[in-house]
Design a protein that fits this description.
alpha+beta; Cytochrome Bc1 Complex, Chain D, domain 2; Porin; 2 domains; 12-stranded antiparallel beta barrel; 19% helix; disordered N terminus
């Protein structure tokens, strides 16, 4: 969750009010003399539930009540701040309310209320709280699907990813790539890619050094939570900073426009699609290339709110844009697992298998360590 320690304490206080709400709802649903059964069983709306349980601390407008009202000097979260209210999925909000703070490595002051409130009541409260964000152009966190090893995802994010790849055949090759992603406003994201590679030469000697640095920008063009879809477009510019003669770089500036789609599937399934072109900007002899990638997977979680496991498989294809060239196909089965209790540190590992041209293309082992830095410090939330 995107909660600071103080914000989480404030949410804990709000949860205490929610506990009171459970009593209020129970009393309200109990038949009283002269009350018709249909009226007694009427469900309260999200607004009614929020005003009865949360407004004292969080304010009727969702901006948080002042100290003179709440009686404590703790900064309350502002639910009208879309950068705070939209990035996380409903499941993360529900996990804390259902099972308390420790389920996401927050303070025990946040108790569990899974037995006091029904899931439908929590859903209605969350729906109302989400409505405090006045801007509809912020994609919801539910559309931020698990990240594949190669296929780009559509949702803008704040992440740092360290990926290592090891080629199993031919001359030795170990690639290390650090990726930094930073969100810009509701729909944009810039990326910085810094590779550091190890390459074995023909004589058996190894070269090591900086690879080709890349800068990229991605923008969400369309998103729909009801359809479970998000579509983004972007472009990357790769610079020839690696030594080509040592096999550490490609020797050309590459411009890469691309499109990427994320789609929620039934039963916690998901799909990513990613396609683009690579154009060398200098007359270096490098060829234009097209690529397309598809990733499909499913997320499993213990008790819905525990550690998440996301097995997936990627279908990867690339082809030089020239007559007579063969499309290179590969399969990449992999598994992403959340490591931290807060689920902001994840690991993903898999092996890329060539489908065709196996005599010249070997298997490659890939693994990444992902840090969603907006959700907390690297060593927090364990």
């Amino acid at each position: 969750m995107n909660f600071t320690h103080n914000q989480f304490i404030s949410l804990s206080l709000s949860a205490l009010a929610v506990a009171h709400l459970a009593v209020v709802v129970t009393a309200a649903q109990a038949p009283t003399p002269g009350t018709a059964p249909a009226q007694a069983a009427r469900e309260r709306t999200g607004e009614e539930l929020y005003r009865a349980a949360c407004a004292t601390c969080h304010g009727p407008d969702g901006k948080g009540s002042p100290k003179s009202v709440v009686g404590f000097d703790i900064e309350l979260p502002d639910f009208t701040d879309c950068s705070f209210a939209t990035p996380e999925a409903d499941l993360d909000w529900m996990a804390i309310i259902h099972q308390g703070g420790p389920t996401r490595a927050f303070d025990r002051m946040m108790p569990a209320f899974g037995d006091a409130l029904t899931e439908a009541e929590i859903d209605r409260i969350l729906g109302y709280v989400r409505g405090f964000c006045p801007e509809a152009n912020w994609p919801r966190g539910d559309l931020n699907l698990p990240r594949p090893l190669v296929t780009e995802k559509a949702s803008p994010e704040n992440e740092a990813v360290l990926t290592t790849s090891v080629r199993s055949t031919g001359t030795g090759s170990v690639g290390n790539q650090f990726l930094y992603e930073h969100r810009i406003g509701p729909r944009g994201q810039y990326e910085v890619v810094v590779p550091f590679n190890l390459q074995e030469g023909a004589a058996g000697t190894w070269s090591r050094g900086l690879g080709d640095i890349a800068l990229a920008y991605k923008h969400a063009l369309f998103d729909s939570l009801s359809r479970g879809s998000i579509l983004s477009a972007g472009s990357e510019l790769k610079f020839p900073t690696g030594k080509e003669r040592s096999g550490l770089g490609g020797g050309a500036t590459i411009f890469e426009p691309f499109l990427t789609l994320g789609q929620i599937l039934p039963r916690d399934g998901f799909l990513h699609a990613h396609a683009g072109l690579e154009f060398p900007l200098a007359t270096s002899g490098a060829s234009n290339e097209a690529f397309w990638r598809l990733a499909i997977g499913k997320t499993y979680a213990r008790n819905r709110f525990g550690r998440a496991w996301s097995p997936m498989v990627e279908l990867l294809a690339a082809r030089e844009i020239a007559s007579g060239e063969t499309t290179a196909w590969a399969l990449l089965p992999e598994m992403q697992v959340s490591l931290s209790t807060r689920q902001h540190i994840l690991i993903n590992a898999g092996v890329r298998f060539p489908v065709n041209e196996r005599d010249t293309r070997g298997k490659t082992f890939l693994v990444y360590l992902l840090w969603d830095w907006f959700d907390g410090a690297l060593f927090d939330g364990w």
